[in-house]
Amino acid sequence: MGKELLLKVLRHEQTNEIPWVPFAGVHAGYLKGYTAKDVLVDPDKLYDSLLEVHKLYTPDGMPIVFDLQIEAEILGCELMWAEDNPPSVRTHPFEDEMVDPKTLPLPQETDGRIPMVLDVMRRMKTAVGDDTALYGLTCGPLTLASHLRGSEFFMDMIEEPEYVEALMDYCADVNIKMADYYLDAGMDVIAIVDPLVSQVSPSSFEELLAPAFIKIFDHIRKRNAVSSFFVCGNATMQMQVMCETHPDNISVDENVDLIEAKKVTDQYNIAIGGNIPLTTTMLFGNQNDNMKYVVDLLDRITKDNLIISPGCDMPYNIPPENTIAAIQAVKHTDMARDMISGYEAADDTLDVVLPDYTALKKPMIEVFTLDAATCAACTYMLAAAMLAKDEFGDDVDVVEYKYTVREDIARTKKMGVQKLPSIYINGELKWSSIIPSRKELIDEVKKYM
């Protein structure tokens, strides 16, 4: 069974096959004609959509909900909803005041959308839980702390380290509470999803943030369950410190070279998962592109402690046939290799014209993101850039280029952007996968005034 295959890999046992885990969040709704909001607030529509994922994509493991705002909403963040994306955090209740974390409550089973999620978890456990490992996802402590505190949290890491440690510890307790609810509802894997880990230095992670993650993963292990540490963006430099927090699995996206990252996780006997590109391959590619990516990856990587999956939460309107092609490459690799023999992807990159940066009359801040509406790391990178508008108004221009838009993909490639998210000023790279503090940003922009 697929469930046993996946759990064996997460327990670092030898297997003859490689498990497949599609991270079909709001994309599950797309398969049934529902909006993103439909499946994130309506238990029947969510359940209906998940059954369709199970039928169409034959997963070895699958998440119930991929929404990193559930905890934030309960704790006072206002959300902005979309038809084809999970909601994003619009307000940060602690951005004007460092609220004492010791005074904060922990989420209860009856709070917010938790009852809906638990209801669907129990129903899915009954329906498919014997053959499919079910994932309970919760927003990791760093991203949750940033949701609560906003961009000020990155300045806190420099100026208020004790407060950062206290807030991280509280957010870890939130994660533990959610993990317990999800395990009690029958989940097999608890995934701590923390996109912002890729945006802090390994030294900052180790000094200020690691204890919170260790606390969470050790608790999950004490519950005799398995864990996954899910990070987005270029977390290459953070791989070792992530391993040292004791997860059973680390999942990464296309910004990370999976083959090189696996060399690190193998040293710690941790399973690694990923990293089919979400937009260039799954969204805008064809069936051959998806098969070729997976086959090429499997031909170059060691097979133990390995899970194949999309790089992150799947975009809403990915063509189902592309996902099915990826499945075929995982489950029937030799057949897929024969099917794509000699195939070369067509270069359909659009031609774009870059600005004449030398002729600009005011600073131009360009933020290259996956999509600030869906990627938390991108949300806070864009928010950092927008601080320049707060400071200088119309004396600066700020623009976002999204890797979910064909023209923006072409611009990203033409600029030679290596990591997402990144900030450029007048065509010069300033921050790559590291979110600047307000002072750092303002001081740098002034150089171009």
What's the quick description here?
It is built from 19 helices and 13 strands.
Describe this structure in words.
By secondary structure, this protein is α/β, with parallel strands linked by helices. The chain folds into 2 domains: about 1-340, TIM Barrel (Alpha-Beta Barrel); about 355-445, Glutaredoxin. The protein has 19 helices and 13 strands. It has helices spanning about 1-10, 25-30, 35-40, 45-55, 70-75, 115-130, 140-150, 150-160, 160-185, 200-220, 240-245, 260-265, 280-285, 285-300, 320-330, 335-340, 375-390, 405-415, 440-445, and strands at about 60-65, 80, 90, 135-140, 190-195, 225-230, 250, 270-275, 305-310, 365-370, 395-400, 420-425, 430. The chain has a 7-stranded parallel beta sheet, sandwiched between helices. Strands 11-10-12-13 form a 4-stranded mixed beta sheet, sandwiched between helices. Helix 4 packs parallel to helix 6 and helix 17 packs across helix 19 (about 440-445). The chain is globular and about 60 Å long.
